[in-house]
Amino acid sequence: MEILRFAFMQRALFIGLIVGVLGATLGVFVVLKRLSFMGAGISHAAFGGIALGYFLGWDPILTAVIFCISVGIGISMLIENNRIKEDTAVGIFFTSTMALGILLIGLKEGYNIDLLGYLFGNILAVSREDLVISLAIGVIIAFSLYFFFKELVLSILDPEMARVIGLPVSFLHHLLVALFALFIVISVRIVGIILVSALLTIPAATALQWSKNLRKVLVLSSIDSLGCVLGGLALSYYLDTSPGATIVILATVVFFTTFLLPLPLKKK
Amino acid sequence: MEEPIIEVKNVSFCYPPLEVLEDVSLTVKKGEFLAIIGPNGGGKTTLLKIILGLLKPQKGEVYIAGKRVEELGKWRSKIGYVPQTAQIDYTFPITVEEFVMTGRFGLIGLGRKPQAHDWEMVRKALREVKMEEWNKKQIGELSGGQRQKILIARSLALEPEILILDEPTTAVDPESSESFYELLLRLHEQGITIITVSHDVGVVAQYADSIACLNRRLIKHDRPEEVIREGVLEEMYGREAAFFHHGTIPHIVVRETPPER
C-alpha cells in the first residue's frame, strides 16, 4: 500500500475514519428530522464564518463554528410561530452569509488562497493539530449522540409528546445544529464546506432504504459512509482527483444503485 | 377522591382574533373520570393542550398536583396523553414496542437505557390494547385503528397518574372502542385520574363520573345522570342538536356525524 507511505495520507485516512462514522450517525438524525437543506445552508454559512475569522484575525475554524451555530439559531428564530417558512429562512441565510464572506474577503487586503482549501478541502493541509482537534470533537459528537440518543429520537419522531413528558425540545434541536457545526470542523479538510452536507445526507438516505430498524440504519449508514470516505480518498489518490468530490460522487453512486434496486432485495 | 389534582383557574385563550376559551375554570379531583364534550371548534383540544402546558393561555393558570404546570418538572412523566391527531412521522424506522417505550422516556431519565422492568411495562401496555403480536412491526405498517391503539398503549406504558385523551376512539372500530372504554373503567378503578374528550355522549355518560360541556365557556356537571336524563339522550341521537339547560346559561351540543347505529 504505497498510499500509506505519505504522512499526510495517513492523517487524512485517520480523520476520514472519524468523519465517516460520525457523519453517518449524525446524518441519520439530520435526514429523519428533515434538516438536509438546513444542513446545506449552515455548512455554506461556514464560508461566511471563516471569512469573518480571517477579517478579524481570529481563528477561522473556531469563528466558523460559532458563526454556524448562530445561523442555526437565527433560522430557528425566523421560523418561530411559522412567520417565515423554513426553506425560505434557510435560503436567506444560505446566500447572505456567503455574500458576507465574499464581501469580507474583498475588504481584506491581499486575497488569501487558502480559502479555496476551506471551500473544497485540502488533505495536504491536514496537520498533527488537526488530528488532535478532530479526535476531541469526534468524542464530543459521539458522546452527545449516545447520551441524548433516546431524547433525540422522540423529539424527532413526535415533538409534541416529547414536550408533554418534559424533554427540552428546542435545546435538542439546537444541539443537533451545534453538532452539525462541529462536524464541519472535522470534515472541512477532507471534503470542504461546500460538500460537507453530502456526508450527512447521502449515506443516511442510502441506509434508510435498506432497513426500517433504527439500529440497523445506523450501522448500515456507518458502513456505507466509511466505505465511501476511505474508498474515495484512495480512489482520488490513484485517479489524481479531488478527494472531497470523489467521496461525494462515490456515495451518490451507491445511493442511486440502492435506489434502483428492486424492492424485495431491500426489505428489512 | 377528595383532593383536587388538576385545577384550571380563569383561563382565557385566543388565536387572535378568535376567542377560543373564555374564563374557563375546572377542578378535577384525584381519581375522577371526567368527560369533556362539545362542538368542534368549541375549544376542547385547546383546553387539553393548556392543561398539558403545550399552549400558554393569555389569562389564567393551570395547577397540577398543586404545582403550576410550567414548573411541573419530573411530575410530567406521570401524565399520559393521547392526542387527537398525532404529528408522528410514520415512516420513522422504529418498531411498535420501541414506539410504546418512548412513553417511558421521561421516567427513565437522561443518558439511561430502558431496563427489563421498562420492557415489561411496554408488553403489558400492548396486551391491554391487544397489540402484543405486532410488537416487532414497523409503525408505518399499521392501519389507522392500530396506530390509535399504540398511541393509547404508549400513554399506558408510563403507568400514568393522569390520563388525558383527545377523542381516543375516533379511528378505532366499534368493538375495540367498547373494550377501550372497559379498559378506561378498569384504570379508573385503580385510581387513575382520567380526562377524555369525546363526541360519543351516550358512551361517556355511562362511564364518566362527571361531564363538562365546553363551547368557549365550560360548565361542569358532577352528576351526569341528572344532566343527561333518559329522554334527553334519545333526543340527542334523533336530532341535529341537543340543548342542555342548567343554571342560567342554556348551551348547545351539535353533532357532526350521523349516528352509527
Query: Which ranges of chain A are low-confidence, i.e. pLDDT below 50, for 5 or more consecutive residues?
Result: none
Radius of gyration of chain B: 18 Å
Quaternary organisation: heterodimer
Structural class of the helix and strand makeup of chain A? mainly alpha
In the CATH hierarchy, what is the superfamily of chain A?
A: ABC transporter involved in vitamin B12 uptake, BtuC
Q: Could you say what the CATH architecture of the domain at 4-84 and 162-254 in chain B is?
A: 3-Layer(aba) Sandwich
Averaged pLDDT of chain B, please? 83
Task: Report the major sheet of chain B.
Answer: 6 strands, mixed
CATH architecture of chain A: Orthogonal Bundle
**Tally of helical runs of chain B:** 9
Counting structural domains of chain A, the number is 1
Going across the major beta sheet of chain B, what is the strand order? 6-7-8-3-9-10
Briefly say what this structure is.
The complex is a heterodimer of chains A (268) and B (261). By secondary structure, chain A is mainly α.
Can you characterise this structure?
The complex is a heterodimer of chains A (268) and B (261). With 268 residues, chain A is mainly α. Chain A has a single domain (2-266), classed as ABC transporter involved in vitamin B12 uptake, BtuC (Orthogonal Bundle). Chain A is built from 13 helices and no strands. Chain A has helices at residues 7-32, 36-56, 60-79, 86-107, 115-120, 128-147, 149-157, 159-164, 169-187, 196-210, 214-239, 243-260, 263-266. Chain B contains nine helices and twelve strands. In chain B, the strands form three sheets. Chain B has a six-stranded mixed sheet, sandwiched between helices. Chain B has a four-stranded antiparallel sheet with strand order 2-1-4-5, covered by helices on one side. In chain B, a hairpin with a 1-residue loop joins strand 9 (210-215) and strand 10 (217-221). Chain B is globular, with a radius of gyration of 18 Å. Classes of the chains: A mainly alpha (268), B alpha/beta (261). The A-B interface holds A 32, 147-148, 150-151, 153-154, 156-161, 163-167, 208, 211-214, 216-217 and B 52-54, 72-74, 76-77, 79, 81, 83, 86-89, 92-95, 98-99, 102-103, 105-106, 108, 110-111, 113, 138, 140, 154, 158.
